[in-house]
Design goal:
- The protein is mainly alpha-helical and about 250 residues long.
- It has two domains: about 20-170, no CATH class; about 180-240, 2-Layer Sandwich (Alpha-Beta Plaits), CATH 3.30.70.
- It has helices at about 20, 25-35, 45-60, 60-65, 70-75, 95-115, 125-150, 160-175, 195-200, 230, and strands spanning about 185, 240.
- The protein has a two-stranded antiparallel sheet.
- Helix 2 (about 25-35) crosses helix 5, helix 2 packs across helix 7 (about 125-150) and helix 6 crosses helix 8.
- The longest helix is centred in the middle third of the chain and has 26 residues, at about 125-150.
- The protein is globular, with a radius of gyration of 20 Å.
- It binds iron/sulfur cluster (2 copies).
- One iron/sulfur cluster binds next to helix 10.
């Protein structure tokens, strides 16, 4: 039997904040517990509001630092993941938009179904179950993809992630990100070895070293600010920084 070649992507651990280390408990509580106690699902709109508000100021920072599902993928499933390349389909704009529209259509159709129960004691339970079931679906589908492909496969097309990018664009247009948006930043360009390790450890399979902007920041809107590239860079020349000031003179790397 032919041996599978090692993956280009490296499975690397990173430091977790106490909040992010245990945020996965919320996923289990809502996704599984919500099937028995549907009112738990009513926590989800608050989580959605928090992540959308965060993205106005900090892009997809939520995904790498607070997201309960992200915590589930990173904390529990990483050891089991095959850590392979995420198929191009899951990164395609058309697919990402399709998933967002399908998600919204599905949610709207289910809301209409429970509308009849409005004003009855059952209404909030039925509403909660919609959100709890959605949470469970992400836990199951995202979890399966995390194991058979890569930990953050789901995050490439997650409807909440896409909505965060839209809010981020709005935040940038309104200037809300100016003081709060911290991006991966190349602090000492001359010391970059072009080793590509920042790309090999990136759970979103991005390529920071090839895409720094004029002021040496990584502007990719899919970046979840997870710090893994920063912690893994051999010469330790990356940081998460806000650099809305004049661009330094760019020298060749
Ligand atoms: S890991 Fe660091 S040294 Fe290597 S390419 Fe990325 S920024 Fe440059
Ligand atoms: S570029 Fe760095 S901070 Fe951004 S998602 Fe990839 S590893 Fe995380």
């Amino acid at each position: 039997m032919s041996k599978q070649p090692p993956s280009y992507y490296l499975k690397t651990s990173r430091a977790f904040s106490p909040l992010y280390k245990y945020a996965w408990l919320l996923t289990v509580l809502i996704g599984i517990g919500g099937q028995l106690f549907p009112l738990l699902g009513l926590l989800v709109p608050f989580i959605m509001a928090a992540l959308l508000a965060t993205s106005l100021f900090k892009g997809k920072y939520w995904c790498g630092n607070y997201c309960p599902h992200g915590s589930f993928f990173d904390n529990l499933l990483k050891p089991l993941s095959r850590h392979l390349k995420v198929p191009q389909l899951f990164r395609a704009k058309a697919f990402i938009i399709f998933v967002l529209l399908f998600f919204m259509y599905n949610l709207a159709a289910r809301f209409i179904n429970v509308y009849d129960a409005m004003g009855t004691g059952e209404f909030y339970e039925k509403l909660g179950l919609i959100f709890a079931s959605t949470y469970l679906m992400v836990l199951l589908v995202g979890g399966l993809l995390a194991v058979i492909i890569n930990t953050r496969t789901w995050c490439h097309f997650c409807p909440m992630g896409t909505m965060q990018i839209l809010m981020y664009k709005l935040g940038k247009a309104l200037g809300l990100t100016n003081k709060t948006d911290k991006k991966v930043t190349l602090e000492q360009p001359d010391l970059c070895r072009s080793c590509g390790k920042c790309a090999r450890v990136c759970p979103m399979q991005l390529t920071p070293h090839q895409n720094f902007s004029e002021n040496y920041q990584f502007d990719d809107e899919q970046c979840i600010r997870c710090h893994i590239c920063i912690e893994s860079c051999p010469p330790a020349i990356l940081s998460l920084a806000n650099r809305v000031k004049e661009a330094p003179h760019r020298e060749s790397i």
